[in-house]
Amino acid sequence: MSSIDQSEKKGYGWLVILMIGAFFTVLSTTLMSNATPIVMKEFDVSATAAQWLTTIYMLTAGIIIPT
């Protein structure tokens, strides 16, 4: 019976790691979206360029953080 319990715990370990990664991905993308006006001011770029930067950051974070 203990071997079944151990195999179930291993499956939940991966799930916990993925959930933590997903949480940090959502958190970082939310923070980046709120920072768009600051990025526009600091780098002296248009809204379109800042939006592309935010989009690329979100795509990269969505791939890298969970892995």
Automatic annotation (TrEMBL):
Provide the protein's localization.
Cell membrane
- Output the superkingdom of the source species: Bacteria
Instruction: Write out the entry's keywords from A to Z.
Output: Membrane, Transmembrane, Transmembrane helix, Transport
Among Gene3D superfamilies, the record links this protein to:
MFS general substrate transporter like domains
Domain Major facilitator superfamily (MFS) profile: start-end pairs: 14-67
InterPro entries the record matches: MFS_dom (IPR020846), MFS_trans_sf (IPR036259)
Topology relative to the membrane: Multi-pass membrane protein
Q: Where are the transmembrane segments?
A: 12-33, 45-65
Protein's name in the database: Major facilitator superfamily (MFS) profile domain-containing protein
Species of provenance: Paenibacillus illinoisensis
